[in-house]
Design brief:
There is one protein chain. A 7-stranded mixed β-sheet has the order 5-2-8-9-16-10-13, with no helix packed on it. Strands 1-15-14-11-12 form a 5-stranded mixed β-sheet, with no helix packed on it. Helices cover 5% and strands 51% of the residues. By secondary structure, the chain is mainly β. It has 3 helices and 23 strands. It has 2 domains: 186 residues, no CATH class; 89 residues, SH3 Domains (SH3 type barrels, Roll). InterPro entries: PEGA, SH3-like_bac-type. This is SH3b domain-containing protein. It comes from Candidatus Gottesmanbacteria bacterium RBG_16_37_8.
Length: 283
């Protein structure tokens, strides 16, 4: 995995008063907390209504809202961001966004709690792009989207994807709740300037005209990617060794599939795994 992707990590601590918001919300169980941080500073809108500027820390009625951040330095090239968020009664929803010149170069996370049955403690992690590697307290747990039980207390959640800037979030898990972490990974500077590799440079399909030859069905069609190529790995894991790269538009024989992955023949006599996020099975 790109070492710089691991090292260039946005680290911050969510001091979750989360459920212990009881003092502030003693008079209304339907009230939720919302904390929003952004870089650069931005105006905050909920359902198209202006509620303040970042850093924002306030209380709202619980429910689902469309949140929009409009950067104040519009001339600086930062794009606005919007998405749906959930404000849970008696809990805090935390939003942090780093607004870049495009959606691909913007990053951030939304963290909130969801009430679940009994005294279970769970964690759900999703990301854009998906199939990102999730590590909890230094141990790899799987790829996004991921849902798993977790022990009560504080945990470090690290999410990495090749070609993107990894992110680290410190959460506090509480009994009877699921902590939901939705992350957006920004494209790394190296990936933004990477030229589209040729087949001979990547060890991908090297047979002349191979990308124009349609294999027997089923086959896999490589779609456009943020980096201009799709990595082929030895196994169905983002931590597996990279063995080649495929250009968008290439059609390769289909062999097998696992959740989030296709196994293909990427070169004569050579098999590997590619992310199904950027590929399509044609039958």
């Amino acid at each position: 995995m790109n070492r710089k992707t691991i090292l260039v990590i946005t680290i911050f601590i969510i001091a979750l008063g989360f459920v212990i918001y009881k003092l502030a919300f003693a008079k209304g169980a339907a009230v939720a907390g919302l904390k929003v941080i952004s870089s650069p500073n931005a105006s905050v809108y909920l359902d198209d209504k202006f509620v303040g500027k970042t850093p924002y820390d306030g209380q709202k009625a619980s429910g689902t809202y469309l949140i929009k951040l409009a950067p104040e330095d519009s001339e600086g090239g930062s794009v606005p961001w919007q998405d749906k968020i959930i404000l849970s009664a008696g809990a805090l929803t935390y939003v942090k966004k780093e607004l870049g010149p495009s959606d691909l170069t913007s990053g951030g996370e939304v963290v909130y709690l969801e009430k679940i049955a009994n005294d279970e403690v769970q964690l759900t992690v999703s990301s854009t792009p998906d199939a990102a590697v999730v590590s909890i307290d230094g141990l790899e747990k799987g790829i996004t989207p991921l849902n798993l039980p977790i022990t009560e207390g504080e945990h470090d959640v690290v999410v990495n994807s090749t070609g993107f800037i990894g992110r680290t979030v410190k959460i506090k898990a509480v009994k009877g709740f699921r902590v939901i972490v939705n992350l957006q990974l920004a494209l790394s500077p190296e990936a933004q300037v990477s030229p589209t590799p040729t087949a001979s440079q990547t060890g991908a399909v090297t047979t002349p005209g191979a990308s124009e030859i349609e294999p027997q069905k089923p086959y896999v069609l490589v779609k456009d990617t943020p980096t201009g190529f799709l990595r082929v790995r030895l196994d169905a894991s983002l931590s597996a060794t990279e063995v080649g790269q495929l250009k968008p538009g290439v059609k390769v024989p289909y062999l097998d599939e696992k959740s989030g992955w296709f196994q293909v023949t990427y070169e004569t006599g050579k098999d590997g795994w590619i992310s199904s996020r950027y590929a399509e099975k044609v039958e």
